[in-house]
Amino acid sequence: MSSHAHVSGAEIRARLPHPIIDGDAHINEFYPGFLEAIDKVGGPEFGRRYRAGFLSSGTGGGHRGGDFSGWVDQSWDERRRWRTRRPAWWGMPTKNLQDAATAVLPGLLYERMPELGWDFTIVYGGLGLFLPIEQDEERRRIGCRALNTLQADMYAEYADRLCPVAVIPMHTPQEAIEELEHAVVRLRHKVIMIPSGVPRPIAGLHASAPEAFPDAHWIDAYGVDSEHDYDPFWQRCIDLGVAVTAHAGTLPTIPWSGRSISSYSFNHVGNHAMHQAHLAKSLVMGGVTHRFPKLHFALLEGGMGWAFQQMAEMMGLWEKRSVEGLANTNPANLDRAGYRRLVERHAGRFAEGRMAQFDQSLENFFTAKVDPADLDEWAAMAVGDASDFADRYAARLFFGCEADDRANVLAFDRRLTPLRVRFNAVFGSDIGHFDVPDMRHVVAEAYELREEELMSDADFRDFTFGNAVRLHGGMNPHFFDGTAVEAEARAILAETERSSTA
């Protein structure tokens, strides 16, 4: 954070005419409270069994072949044998005592917020990255519910400035709906988080080698080729007024081709973007954003660069691979006789005595056995022309961006963005993790782009405040009622409503 190594977030906040919302902070769950919640939700006997696995692995139990969390303590030889990735280590602040404690204690975070420089915080956790993809259904369901119960209770007295997140397991739509309703209706959670995908067994391989799972798996990202119809879940989110936020850690779901057994840093680079890009294109190309135009999705901690590129690439590919675009490559449109004459004329001695073979290769090369019903891979999006991508993609998706990511400017520069859209970039501090060595300087680091005039005042307001309000307040206009930013959030929502009806 170079030029702002000694500038506090409080100093930057004092210059601004608007609040700051931290849309993605992290706090490490209070483990004793979590284990007590496990006892409460699952009962004493389940709690006893769960504690044994939890304390032995440090992450909630599991073992190779049945769960991801058991890989944390694998030896070098085991990782080399199975080509499993090296997981995170030394991932939490320790040198700075205040930050180390702030990453665990909501009361301390609440107390320090004026010093840090933001006014309202949405708090994600570490266990929330793993519990929803636990493979054992009983452990998964009870673990998620226990965590949601703990967070609702632990943050209740700080609701004017801190907002905890409920984790939703997505193995089936029914399971997801049941936990969603319990979290929002019973526990009064306002923010939910889903995993960016569900790892599932590869049926053919699993039948003969079940021990290969979960290492060998495919990722179900709820849209294209999903194992289930998740539309009832998306509709229930709209009914309950909650945006769908998605997060992923550096999980073993990294493909073998991009995995290191020795370097966590290698595994971390690009990991969040990879998972969120997969989820985004599955939701968009699967038609979810088209069928549910009122639903907001937030793809967290992956930054802005991948989304900028993905939308542009998707548009370019649609132009060439839509049904209309495929006319340029449809074998039926080839003048085969004319093609043959050109070969005879220009291939010279290479064609002599070989034209019969060429005719056969021509037939093979330009024949595609495609069912006409399968030609339109974009049907679910219902795209009429390229301008529809602004609605299907840019308007529906929000992108969590960290302070030190210079690609954040790509969200706002209409000279560069596809269709001259403004992307919904949302500031996330990522405090509680190793990449924030001093929480006091996060806001100042984000503000560097404004000082370098790569963002305008309006851009910075949207980045650090307006877009977070639209993400959550756009789903639930009462989201910020009773909070420290209520009046300013109400003004943003009114401004957004006026612009949408103009």
Largest beta sheet: strand ordering:
1-2-3-4-7-8-9-10
Number of domains: 2
Mean pLDDT equals 90
Could you tell me how far the N terminus lies from the C terminus, measured between alpha carbons in angstroms? 41 Å
Q: Specify the CATH homologous superfamily of the largest domain.
A: Metal-dependent hydrolases
The SSE string, one letter per element, is HEHHHHHEHEHEEHEHEHHHEHHHHEEHHH
Radius of gyration from CA coordinates: 25 Å
Q: Biggest sheet: strands, sense, closure?
A: 8 strands, parallel
CATH class designation of the largest domain: Alpha Beta
CATH architecture of the largest domain: Alpha-Beta Barrel
Q: Identify the quaternary structure here.
A: single chain
What does this structure look like?
This protein is an alpha/beta fold and 502 residues long. Helices cover 43% and strands 10% of the residues. The radius of gyration is 25 Å and the shape is globular. Helix 1 packs across helix 18, helix 2 crosses helix 7 (137-154) and helix 19 (457-473) packs across helix 20. It has helices at 9-15, 31-42, 44-57, 76-82, 97-102, 106-116, 137-154, 173-186, 203-208, 231-240, 264-268, 271-285, 288-291, 305-321, 336-346, 355-365, 388-394, 442-451, 457-473, 486-501; strands at residues 21-27, 120-125, 162-167, 191-195, 198-200, 218-220, 244-247, 297-299, 397-402, 424-428. Mean pLDDT is 90; it is low at 58-67. It folds into two domains: 2-318 and 393-501, Metal-dependent hydrolases (TIM Barrel), CATH 3.20.20; 325-374, no CATH class. It has 20 helices and ten strands. Helix 8 (173-186) links the parallel strand 3 (162-167) and strand 4.
